[in-house]
What we know:
Layout: E1 6-9, H1 15-31, H2 44-53, E2 55-61, E3 64-72, H3 76-79, E4 86-94, H4 103-117, E5 122-128, H5 132-140, E6 144-152, E7 160-168
Parallel strand pairs: 4-5
Antiparallel strand pairs: 1-2, 2-3, 3-4, 5-7, 6-7
Helix pairs in contact: 1-2
Amino acid sequence: MTSDLTFALADDGDLPVLTGLYDGAARWMRDHGIDQWQPGGKDAEHFRLRMKEGEVWLARAGSAVVGAYELWWRDEPAWGEQPPVAGYVHRLMVDRTTAPRGTGRILLAHAERRTAEAGRPLCRLDCRSDNAALIRYYGSLGYAVVGEQAAKTDGGGSPYAVTLMEKALPSGSRP
């Protein structure tokens, strides 16, 4: 696994890159029989709002953007009302044509560090409950299944079930 990635917060100038990453990841999922994201499902306004309400991070290998993720500080649609004890990772995106092997793990590790730096002891995420491969992947990275939200909506279609997963962050990594 490589660690030669650099991270930067996204800004409005990165909106085309973010929508391109999303669409590329959605096409890869579709081509591999995964019904999770759809090309065109997230536009520039989606990412602009995420930047306003949380953090959107880009990862680069050299000058090439190879991945990105969103870090939210609350997530009522999936987790309900919660005390401020977690960071919530969304839209973990990797450019499969240019990203070095292990980029997804590095993106998630960065999100965990950011969450710990914010003084929150848990990193949480969710994924569609019918995506067994992704649930196994997150499990292999230390995330435990802690529940299911049976009727999450993303504003664009029918409700779907998501598996809720979390990872306790090492206490020594928090300020």
